[in-house]
Design brief:
This protein has 9 helices and 14 strands. The chain has helices at about 10-25, 35-50, 85-110, 120-130, 145-160, 190-200, 210-230, 235-250, 295-310, and strands at about 5-10, 30-35, 60, 70-75, 115, 140, 165, 185, 190, 255, 260, 270-275, 275-280, 280-285. It is found in: Cytoplasm.
């Protein structure tokens, strides 16, 4: 597959994405850009010295000019929250970083599909959409793809069934107001409640699903990993590389990426995650999955929480 992918930010997430792309043979050319030139050169050297086990790939520790004609640009730049720093303060700092990056990269790669990974990802996706001047179909945030992956792993462990049999999603903000629309959660065509009854009838040793506990597992997993090892980057990198694969595929797929809403579910002018058609032409629209009234209200609550943050930052 011949594709050029630029990654901005060579921290744990950006460099792990570069490593994964290099070894999955997703890209033929990878450009890694970071303000810390020494760091990015070291990352590229380390990655490229292991590429003899795959077909040839070009890795460049570059500048914005090297991103010219990129098919996909992945933005991971930003800082982690410091002790005593409020979420708003962190948001404004990372928004300012994005504002400095955006005109430089858009000038070089105006036709690329952009994946925003920097946190808070929904706010950053919104800001990039507003200031980049690019068509909205070219812009998506990684959103709740990682949350959805965590949910499917949690369900597969609970029910002892392969993750590929599970179709369940996390909607809303990639954060505290995310939720699981259980109305649209299925295991091989059965609702989770129906699947539990079927497994019980087959003599399987399964317990009833505690849905609140499952949501807490999804929401708290990132914090637990950070507490234990200092950062999360393997799972998020895997999900971003999966998204890259969807963009480079021959047909559209569905994914919970963060993108601008225009009246879907009664929500306007905010980026968050719902089922979205993603493919070679970028975002092709939202698929409005069946949800009950309570779930729609949870989505609106998530949207309002994000709008409150947007109202307090300087665009």
């Amino acid at each position: 597959m011949s594709s050029k992918i630029t990654i901005i930010g060579a921290g744990s997430v950006g460099s792990t994405i570069a490593y994964t792309l290099a070894h999955d043979e997703i890209a033929s050319e990878i450009v890694l850009i970071d303000i810390n030139k020494e760091k990015v050169e070291g990352e590229v050297m380390d990655i490229e010295q292991g590429t003899c086990f795959r077909s040839p790939v070009s890795l460049v520790a570059g500048d914005y000019a090297d991103a010219k004609d990129s098919d996909i640009v992945i933005i991971t730049s930003g800082i982690a929250r410091k002790p005593g720093q409020t979420r708003i303060e962190l948001t404004q700092t990372n928004v300012n970083i994005l504002k400095s990056i955006t005109p430089q990269i858009v000038k070089e790669a105006p036709n690329a599909k952009y994946i925003i990974v920097s946190n808070p990802v929904d706010i950053m996706t919104y800001v990039f959409t507003k200031i980049s001047g690019l068509p909205e179909n070219q812009i998506m945030g990684s959103g709740t793809i990682l949350d959805t992956a965590r949910l499917r792993y949690g369900l597969s462990e609970h029910f002892q069934v392969a993750q590929g049999n599970i179709h369940a999603y996390v909607f809303g903000e990639h954060g505290d107001t995310s939720f699981i629309p259980w109305t649209g959660a299925y295991i091989s065509g059965l609702s989770t409640d129906e699947y539990y009854e079927e497994m019980k009838a087959h003599g399987k040793d399964v317990k009833p699903l505690d849905k609140e506990a499952m949501l807490e597992y999804v929401q708290k997993s990132g914090g637990k990993v950070i507490a234990k090892k200092g950062a999360t980057f393997y799972a998020v990198s895997a999900t971003v590389c999966q998204l890259v694969g969807l963009i480079l595929a021959a047909s559209d797929s569905l994914a919970t990426v963060s993108s601008m809403l225009h009246g879907e579910y009664g929500i306007e002018d905010v980026c968050l995650s719902t089922l979205t058609l993603v493919g070679p032409n970028g975002i092709q629209g939202k698929v409005q999955m069946r949800m009950n009234k309570e779930e729609v209200e949870l989505l609106k609550k998530s949207a309002n929480a994000l709008k409150e943050v947007i109202a307090q930052i300087e665009l």
